[in-house]
Design a protein that fits this description.
With 637 residues, the chain is of the alpha/beta class. The chain has 18 helices and 31 strands. The strands form nine sheets. Strands 1, 18, 19, 21, 22 and 23 form a six-stranded antiparallel beta sheet that branches. A four-stranded mixed beta sheet has the order 3-2-11-10. The chain starts with a strand and ends with a strand.
């Protein structure tokens, strides 16, 4: 029996680092646009020189091969400068979400041994209390990029070698603390060479994913490897599908890489506008199992030249398979298989004794072949559990990665994804280890036991936390506030169920099959009592797809989640003439509570600090929205 299915290996170009492809286009098309964000456009020449300038400053400050430089920037052209500047210095990138809880950021920087952080004034000011941690020096990136940097006589920086560390990305950890996935450059070169053979040159490509995701790096580097232009979606545009469609239309975007939920939303948004987003030629989806919605079929049918690729992989591996769907879309299965391996990957479907299972029999998916990540930074024990010696490879030292996914081989060597083999959760494109949330819940003084599960499907999917207590059970809002101070928003459960005790199996583990269903019954309806409550309740209804909303009903109880929070704060701020910070939704999650904040401002009592309330928007200005919590790792079925 053949234990694995191998990818056909096409010849690749010779390249030392991911900077080589970018340098090629700097030489060929120096004045072509490389990145666009709002009114700002940087050509390849200007982006290259700005990155060189930053790289030299980083080197002077001590950056170099195998060192890590933090990147704490909101979505902008400066992010592109920072990524290239860090790589040109020879160091590796460690992106952190500038809007996640400060304690989480400091813990990540300390765990990785970071001594330099590239940032900007607004982020620096928000971290003034406590800073970045002991011995961490911040280095502001130039946001006014009119200076071309080094003169023509200076040689551009070339970075480090293919075996050197390229980035570390922190992902949710099953042991209760985030883990840093350490990736070197060699796998990226292999992936970028594959992109060169797979996709059209000089695309106009959307940057949708955050930099804290490996997909964010792929969006940037693959676009520059192909000589294209990156169009950066702002945080508001990422979470407002109508605004995202406008960006695609305005910039004539030809290529997008979106999570399944966002692709479905985009297709539904433009369903009644045949000419909208007509520039699209390459659609790539990732993050969760692809389910072809009627709106996606309609979009692809009216764009006869469009290609739909379904990427499957993980942060530890990058892309492993990428089956392509082409028109006619009405012939596509509702749940397409995840296909065959790409590049030089090998996929095994094994039983619990690591033996291959026959075609049609479910097993656990392992991936060998091409170089995976080094492992988990500073954690050899976890690395040994996930990265195993490959018994089916003849190459000395070969490893295979245990994905935790279940699958089976269909006829003709096509892989079918069957879900998770463990408790890891995939929610709206995010990869979440419930153990991390459960650990933090148990740290609450009134919680003795906790378990977190995913309930519902598609747009209705949410996280539910079940807890038990020795004394009086804490209120759901108290638990939500406790977690919101420690976790990014996408990891904060929406539903909280208190039980006298959690059901257990015969072996003493929590029996998740016996947990009661989440009670979604709504509280008694309370009608709006003034114009502010009415306006905010209408926004809740529009965003959540509810016919009407009680002003005492929680955004999270109604099914609100992290992908919708930014849209909510933007629309409430615009409608009421105030600026809402992201965390206001956690602290005041009902229309009545948010309306009281608005009335307090109007009465002249003054604005609460950003992390505690709302601040007035400038007269005539559109409300600004803080960045939502970013993806810190994901699995892509």
């Amino acid at each position: 029996m053949t234990p694995a299915h191998d990818a056909a290996v096409a010849p690749s170009r010779t390249a030392r680092t991911p900077l080589d492809g970018f340098a090629e286009w700097v030489a060929r098309t120096p004045e072509a646009p490389a990145v666009v964000c709002g009114p700002q456009t940087l050509s390849y020449r200007r982006l290259d020189r700005a990155a060189d300038q930053l790289g030299r400053r980083l080197r002077a400050a001590g950056a170099g091969p195998e060192s890590l430089v933090g990147i704490a920037l909101r979505r902008s052209a400066a992010q592109s400068v920072a990524v290239l500047g860090v790589l040109k210095s020879g160091a590796a990138c460690l992106p952190v979400d500038p809007d996640q809880p400060p304690e989480r950021t400091r813990a990540q920087l300390a765990d990785a041994g970071v001594r330099l952080v590239v940032t900007e004034k607004s982020v620096e000011d928000a971290r003034a209390e406590g800073g970045w941690g002991p011995q961490v020096v911040s280095l502001p990136v130039e946001t006014d990029l009119t200076d071309d940097g080094p003169g023509d006589g200076e040689q551009p920086l070339t970075g480090s070698g293919p075996e050197n560390l390229m980035y570390v990305l922190y992902t949710s950890g099953s042991t209760g603390r985030p883990k840093g996935i350490a990736m070197h450059a060699a796998p990226q070169i292999t992936l970028l060479d594959w992109c060169r053979r797979r996709y059209a040159e000089q695309p106009v490509a959307l940057q949708f994913f955050p930099l804290t995701s490996d997909v964010g790096f792929l969006e940037l580097l693959s676009t520059w490897w192909l000589g294209g232009c990156v169009v950066v979606a702002t945080e508001h545009e990422r979470h407002d599908i109508a605004a995202l469609a406008d960006v695609i239309d305005r910039h004539q975007v030809t290529k997008v890489l979106l999570p399944v939920l966002a692709l479905n939303g985009l297709a539904a948004q433009v369903a009644d506008a045949p000419d909208r987003c007509g520039s699209l030629r390459e659609l790539i989806t990732t993050g969760e199992q692809l389910v072809i919605s009627p709106a996606v079929r309609q979009l692809c049918d009216r764009l006869p030249d469009v290609l739909l690729d379904n990427h499957y992989g993980s942060t530890e591996l990058n892309v492993v398979t990428a089956p392509r769907l082409t028109a006619p879309a009405d012939a596509w299965p509702e749940r397409p298989a995840v296909g065959r391996p790409i590049v030089d990957s090998r996929i095994y479907v094994l039983d619990t004794d690591l033996r291959p299972v026959p075609p049609g029999v479910p097993g656990e998916i392992y991936v060998g072949g091409g170089p995976p990540a080094r492992g988990y930074l500073g954690n050899p024990a976890q690395t040994a559990v996930a990265f195993l010696p490959d018994p089916y490879s003849k190459a000395p030292g070969s490893r295979m990665y245990r994905t935790g996914d279940r699958g089976r081989w269909r006829p003709h060597g096509v892989l079918e994804y069957l879900g998770r083999a463990d408790f890891q959760i995939k929610l709206h494109g995010y990869r979440i280890e419930p153990g991390e949330i459960e650990t933090l819940l148990r740290e609450h003084p009134d919680v003795s036991q906790a378990v977190v599960v995913k309930t519902g499907e598609g747009e209705d999917a949410l996280l539910a936390a079940y807890t038990s207590s020795e004394g009086p059970a804490p209120h759901a809002d108290e638990l939500r506030d406790h977690l919101a101070r420690l976790l990014p928003s996408y990891m904060v459960p929406q539903a909280y169920i208190s039980l006298p005790e959690l059901p257990l199996t015969a072996t003493g583990k929590v029996d998740r099959n016996r947990l009661p269903e989440v009670d979604t019954a709504r509280a008694s309806f309370v009608a709006p009592r003034d114009e502010d409550e009415a306006a905010i309740a209408r926004i809740f209804s529009d965003i959540l797809g509810k016919e009407q909303v009680s002003v005492e009903e929680s955004f999270f109880r109604l099914g609100g989640h992290s992908l919708l929070i930014t849209q909510l704060v933007h629309r409430v701020g615009k409608a009421c003439g105030v600026e809402l910070p992201l965390r206001a939704v956690f602290e005041r999650a009902t229309p009545a509570q948010l309306a009281r904040d608005v009335r307090r401002l109007r009465s002249g009592e003054g604005a609460a600090p950003a992390e505690e309330g709302v601040v007035p928007a400038e007269e005539g200005a559109e409300a600004r929205t803080p960045a939502a919590a970013a993806d810190s790792g994901r699995v892509r079925p």
